[in-house]
Design goal:
single chain, 144 residues, alpha+beta, five-stranded antiparallel sheet, 16% helix, 58% strand
Amino acid sequence: MNKKVVNGWCFCLFLQLLFLNVSHASNLFFTWQKDLFLEKEQKYRAKVLLDSVQKLLVLRWTLYKNNGLVIHLHYDGFNHQAILYKDYQRAGFSLTLGENLKPNPKLHIFFKNFDDKKAHLRLFLEEVGASIVEESPKDSEKGE
């Protein structure tokens, strides 16, 4: 077989696989999203419904230093802490909401901006199986 024909077939196969992977990667399914503006120590509370069980999610931030935002997240009895930056590689934090559920629903938190002593965060729920049934940013509650 001619070497040019073989190279042509390999290139076509490579392009098909590339387009298949790109189209699959772009099919993230967000069932819910929210833009959130929080002051320091202001709490955002949400009840997450997973398989007929409600779990409390509490999110707050405590420090903005050297362009990094320290967030604290309490979910399902566990505390999580992360430092988020506005650059692409370090702007997000993901939390699996239900280990035993298929598909695995996840909460994604992205740091968008810091302005006027408020942090702008964008929250997403990925996949089906989880929903937000009640939410409230507690403006008057600080600390605790």
